[in-house]
Amino acid sequence: MKKLAFLIIFFCCSHSYAQDIEYIKKLDTVYVKFKKSVNQTKEGSADYRFYTITLDKSQDEGSLYFTKPDFKDNSTETAKKYSPRFEKKSFLKKHKNNIVGIDFFQKYGIKKSRYDAFSVNSVIYIIDCDERKKDKISLYRVSMSSSYRMGE
Known about the structure:
Structural class: alpha+beta
Shape: globular
Signal peptide: 1-18
Largest sheet: 8 strands, mixed
Keywords: Signal
């Protein structure tokens, strides 16, 4: 009986937090959780950042690229949009339904993730988990691209 109760609770909880591609499509702002690993790499400096998510080691599937541009003049409106944001950790709980991670990309693949889930109008932020400081997390507005090649 305990096992049955556990399975029911597990099943309900796992579906309530699962990201659905249809839900993500409707969002105007999406947060991508990033933690440096074999499949997630980061290059650049404080001003320019280049994040890569690769779904498999052979890169047959392709890769997703997230870029935070560098601006020489940070006083322009465009530069201000790309300035880093620092939020309290409670931000993660508040926006948990709007946050996707590598599991989402592995589930749907590069093509669906890039061309179906993230619309042209979506604003994308990287949550850089490697830069957590005490009770703050770092958010960077980025542009997204991929190495996925459409069929000939």
